[in-house]
Amino acid sequence: MSLYAALVAPFVEFEFMRRALAALAALSLGGAPIGVFLMLRRMSLVGDAMAHAILPGAAIGFLLSGLNLWAMTMGGLAAGFMVAILAGVVARSTGLKEDASLATFYLASLALGVSIVSIKGTNIDLLHVLFGNILAMDNETLLMVAFNATITLLVLAVIYRPLVIESVDPLFLRTVSRAGTPAHLAFLALVVINLVSGFQALGTLLAVGLMILPAGIARFWSRDITGMICIAVGSAMLSGYAGLVLSFQTRVPSGPAIILVAAALYLASVLFGGVGGLVRQLSPGRHLEA
Amino acid sequence: MRRLVLTAFALALAAAHPLHAAERLNVAASFSILADFARNVGGDKVDVTALVGPNGDVHVYVPAPSDARKVADAKLLLVNGLGLEGWLPRLVQSSGSKAAIVTASNGIAPLEHGSEADPHAWQSVANAKIYVANIREALAAADPGDAAAFRANADRYLAELDALDRDVRTAVAQIPPERRKVISTHNAFGYFAAAYGIQFIAPSGVSTETEPSARDIAAIIQQIRAEKVPAVFLENISDDRLIRRIAAETGARVGGTLYSDSLTGEKGPAPTYIDLVRHNIKALISALGR
Fold it and tell me: B2-168 in CATH: which number?
């Protein structure tokens, strides 16, 4: 098989592959920077927790209007915001740590969601409905993903300075500005937006992976935040493209294929990364000679 | 001879328990279509509950405690068998039920799908008649006092099914032979296809749980283009965005909904099995006819 047939032809021949690639590019632009900040704020697992917090909102949307994608998405967003903001407020106004208060709220939210689903008494797997498939990008979903990425980048641009300073030295920020708390809450809202958009595109809870794994990769190649964000976006896009090709050539479902490629990149970065990679650490001699 | 013995046995039992005939037999069926068969055969002599109700997905079903109670209360538990109800054995065990478990698909030659049997045997009306006969025998064995009523009900219902079978065959005969093929999200229609000669091509495996790879979708699109498949069909359970994408990419007509695994509610287009088959054949005719 020629290189062209393997790497380019699928996208030329099939529109669904082009749409998938476009959606992944948008997801990478929005999600990867969010992932970097999550990592810097030691909140990498928050994405996973938030993913569960979304259920009751989707369930209420379902109760009110049946299997309506928009109602369920809006409900999911609302529930996610609520949990994120409540957890953020509790963590900032009491002594409780952010992860503990978030764990409490997301578990309560998940329990509420499961109860609401069972009240209706149907046996439809709600999350199955909420989750889309990267291969099934209709105009509506594609626009939503692109819109979310745009909003994410705009809001990040506005809150960038306080967010960076707070990630590095929260006490300093608190002494010079009041922007810390609003910036943090806006950031949590962005996390939710990107999760919902990831669900609709990538299909499963693996959506969190496209947010977090590129951030992990970037950590091994750059020391400054700008560099990290660029590398994270780049490696997310690369994983998306390579994952689609892998899925096309090997019949691995697309969502898992994309995350597996990202995981392989992560592993390579852990071993060979320029900043703190294992090989670098083990051979300081060569480093000095160079 | 066997029937004579059974009848004698039944008469003896009826004589021994004069009150027995007045009690209604409690029957639980694993999903809505079996429940419909049981209601038609049992008439007013039985109480039928379906564990997976209308519009539920029997493949990914998670039993609730109320289901365990339904199973525990039932004297007879009707299941489809052929691997459809993977969740059922544990439910029966945990509910401590003493119900007699009857496999309604007994005596049907299963179609193979990969290494597993395709469980959707009821999609052929001839098979539905075997289901009904099995249910009639099971009900008669569980409640011999009402055996005569069950037989009369079953005879009437079997005659309706015969008429249904004839109607489906007449309808299919109106479609030009080269147009007798469709794409559907869920290949639940293997038995229907085998019985009536309409070819069904499905994008995702035999179960709603498997996620298609990019290769699978591409293969289907190529197949539609190559064989000029005239229509794609949505199903009442799976995500329909995928099928719309395929339709958009190939120019095939998007047919209406085909019902496969579950009936709809009272107000839906398929509240009974007969309605379901009539609805499906109407949808097929309008999409495939010229």
Answer: 3.40.50.1980
Question: From residue B81, how far is each of B105, B113, B123, B158, B175 by CA, in Å?
Answer: 6, 15, 14, 21, 33
Contacts with A258 from chain B: Cβ below 8 Å = none
Domain ranges for chain B, please list them: 2-168, 174-288
Selected residues 228-257 of chain B with any CB under 8 Å from a CB in chain A: 237, 239, 241-242, 244-246, 248-249
Interface test with B, best of A73, A125, A127 (most B CBs within 10 A): A125
Q: Which contacts (CB < 8 Å, 24+ apart) does range B14-22 have?
A: B14/B144, B14/B145, B17/B145, B20/B143, B20/B145, B21/B145, B21/B146
Instruction: Return the DSSP state at B266.
Output: T
Alpha carbon separation from B127 to B39, B75, B131, B155, B163 (Å, rounded): 17, 25, 6, 15, 14
**C-alpha–C-alpha distance, residues B235 and B186, integer Å:** 7
| Cα–Cα dist B262/B270, whole Å | 9
ipTM of model: 0.73
Percent of chain B as helix, strand, coil, to the nearest 5:
50, 15, 30
Question: Which residue, among B260, B137, B136, has the nearest Cα to B200 in the 3D structure?
Answer: B260
Task: Compute CA A280 distance to the chain's CA centroid, rounded to the nearest angstrom.
Answer: 29
CA B195 to chain centre: 15
Say how far apart CA B235 and CA B55 lie, in whole Å: 11
Provide the 3-class DSSP secondary structure of residue B117.
strand
pLDDT in tens, chain A (290 residues): 688 888 888 898 898 899 999 999 999 999 999 999 999 888 888 878 887 787 778 777 777 776 566 777 788 888 888 888 888 788 878 878 877 888 888 888 888 877 877 776 554 555 555 566 788 888 888 888 899 999 999 999 999 998 888 888 877 877 877 777 788 888 888 888 888 888 777 765 677 888 999 999 999 999 899 999 999 999 999 999 999 999 898 888 888 889 999 999 999 999 988 888 888 778 765 555 54
Q: Do domains B2-168 and B174-288 have the same CATH topology?
A: yes
The residue whose two tokens read 């979304």 is A54
Nearest to residue B239, comparing CAs of A117, A141, A277, A98? Answer: A141
Give the burial class of A137: count Cβ atoms within 10 A of its Cβ; 0-12 exposed, 13-18 middle, 19 or more buried: buried
Contacts of B208 in chain A (CB under 8 A): 128
* Spatial separation of the C-alpha atoms in residues B258 and B241, rounded to whole Å: 15
Determine the CATH number of domain B174-288: 3.40.50.1980
Look at B217 and A135 and tell me if their CB atoms are within 8 Å. yes
Total CB pairs under 8 A between chain A and B: 94
